[in-house]
Amino acid sequence: MATSSTLLTGPIHKALLSLAIPIVISQLLQSAYQLTDAFWVGRLGPAEVAAVSISMPVTFLAIAIGAGLAMAGATLAAQYMGAGKQDEVDKVSAQTLLMVLIVSTLLGACGYWLSPHFLTLLNVEPAVYTNALNFMHVSFIGVIFVFTFNMFQALMRGIGEVKIPLLIVLGTVLLNLVLDPLFIFGFGSFEGLGVTGAALATLVTQALAAIIGVVILLKGRHGIHVHLRYFVPDYTYIRRAFFLGIPGSVDLSARALGQIIMSFLVASFGTVTIASYGVGNNILMFVTIPALGLGMAISTLVGQNLGAGQIERASQAAITGTIWGFVSLTIVGGLSFLLAPQIIAFFVPEQPQVIVTGAEFVKVMALTWGGMAVQVCITGAFRASGNMMNAMVLSLLSQWMFLFPIAFVLSKHTELGKAGIWWAFAAANILIGIVSVCWLARGSWKHTKLTNDDQEVLQVTEETLRESDDRYYP
């Protein structure tokens, strides 16, 4: 666990690395859920790949709506940890868990009921409909487990504990590697469930992860102890977290809605294009993990330093992390550009049309991934400071002012056709990167503080620094 003294003192790059490396590994492992599904479902055929591709944005929308609550809880936990208020950290965690359980149950039930209406609205082909519906139904049943474990991870990151979630993810991903082909293709007398089996394997492993996370919080051995008395609804906190979390929910929901709108556009070009888009999106999700992990590390480091009143150190962390994100994803983009056909073929072998179209998608957008990394890292700093509105606006700009309008114009009103969708991703990445840097440079985000009693915060910070000095310079 990266202690508060480590995050509040010493070289920033070491603090970022101590947080980012376990988070990135954890995120890479979590992405293995989607990649494993993509790998095995790709062996079933284009229609099955399209079924998963068309389902993912819809289920992500439900998850995104409630994710803002976990963001709010993690942000408050990080700032209270930086301020040295352990009781508030525990209470915030319990109240966040309570809210997430209620919201995820409601969203999962609504999503399950509305699934056939979503697919009808998307006008998917008959060959895709049944598999997509089954995949969505199982996914919506598992929403409560996804919410719960994501909340657990967010709270652990908020206090600087990043190794425990990593170990849980490692175990469940290894289990998923076994269950996925078993549930999809069957074994012995068990015939397998196809696309539904992929969703079911993920459901089982995520349920296990969520249960372990809740047990850890209740036992209180890793920095947070959610006492039962803290589960009594505190409407003052709930109202505060609700309004703090709304922009975060809108942020992620805007992305999910943007993906759904893009699905409409992509679907108009046929099953091969849908499958190519789905595989390309899976690759995009995977290669952005270094930036996502770095953004989470930035969020923890910035949140704790703002809570401790160390504004300039928080600013330096945001800038350093953003530079790292830009460089890392630019390098990854260059490698993906060179190896695009081989990467696509790994997921959809013996599907030449999908390989050609998917490789075109990756090549067009890969060299601009650095701009996307800039947005992710700066968004992490904004969220940590409590400026959820800034993060929300960046997301709205990216999806609704840049990506979809450009994709629609280029694909429907130029000779590019479906390639116009690919070029829209490249243009949006460049534009949102520029806007994000300009907004960060303004500096107004640094002066938002969510903890109370500034004098107490400064006193705790001075004591932390003094303890650190005594430890290293006796």
UniProtKB/TrEMBL annotation:
Any one annotated GO CC term: plasma membrane
Q: What is its main location?
A: membrane
Localization annotation = Cell inner membrane
Q: Where is the signal peptide?
A: none
State which residue ranges cross the membrane. Answer: 12-29, 49-76, 97-115, 135-152, 164-187, 193-218, 256-277, 283-302, 323-349, 361-382, 389-409, 421-441
Q: Which UniProt keywords apply?
A: Cell membrane, Membrane, Transmembrane, Transmembrane helix, Transport
**What GO terms are given for molecular function?**
antiporter activity; xenobiotic transmembrane transporter activity
Work out whether the entry's keyword set contains Cytoplasm: no
Topology of the protein relative to the lipid bilayer? Multi-pass membrane protein
Q: Does the keyword S-adenosyl-L-methionine apply?
A: no
Quote the InterPro entries the UniProt record gives: MATE_fam, MdtK-like, Membrane_Transporter-Flippase
- Which protein are we looking at? MATE family efflux transporter
The species this protein belongs to is Alteromonas lipolytica
